[in-house]
């Protein structure tokens, strides 16, 4: 059964995540307020960021950077800076 939430990223009602994908308080906030579609969009950007910056997810600083970029993207609408990537015009 799908859960409909008001997605803070897409600014519309949309299908919520099936379960909390990220730990802690940030994860709960994402689960409660971010749709599957918006999270999938973030995951694509996250992959580009990890690859471009050659991040190591065992490295606490890299994880902290990525979490800050994720929160900024999902909740504040800030595109991460990915070299050579131009977000599509809305």
How would you explain this protein's 3D organization?
There is one protein chain. With 90 residues, this protein is mainly α. Helix content is 49%, strand content 9%. Helix 2 runs antiparallel to helix 3. This is Probable Fe(2+)-trafficking protein. InterPro entries: Fe_traffick_prot_YggX (IPR007457), Fe_traffick_prot_YggX_sf (IPR036766). Could be a mediator in iron transactions between iron acquisition and iron-requiring processes, such as synthesis and/or repair of Fe-S clusters in biosynthetic enzymes. Necessary to maintain high levels of aconitase under oxidative stress.
How would you summarize the topology of this molecule?
Layout: E1 4-7, E2 12-15, H1 24-33, H2 36-52, H3 60-76
Antiparallel strand pairs: 1-2
Helix pairs in contact: 2-3
The average pLDDT score comes to 93
Stretches where pLDDT is under 50 for at least 5 consecutive residues are none
CATH homologous superfamily label:
Fe(II) trafficking protein YggX
Q: What is the share of helical residues?
A: 40-55%
CATH first level = Mainly Alpha
Number of discrete domains: 1
CATH topology: YggX-like
**How big a fraction of the residues is strand?**
5-15%
- Note the overall shape: globular
| Rg | 13 Å
Return the string of H and E elements.
EEHHH
Give me the count of strands.
Answer: 2
Family: Belongs to the Fe(2+)-trafficking protein family.
Pfam families: Iron_traffic
Organism: Colwellia hornerae
Keywords: Iron
List keywords for this structure.
globular; 49% helix; YggX-like; 90 residues; 2 strands; mainly alpha; two-stranded antiparallel ribbon
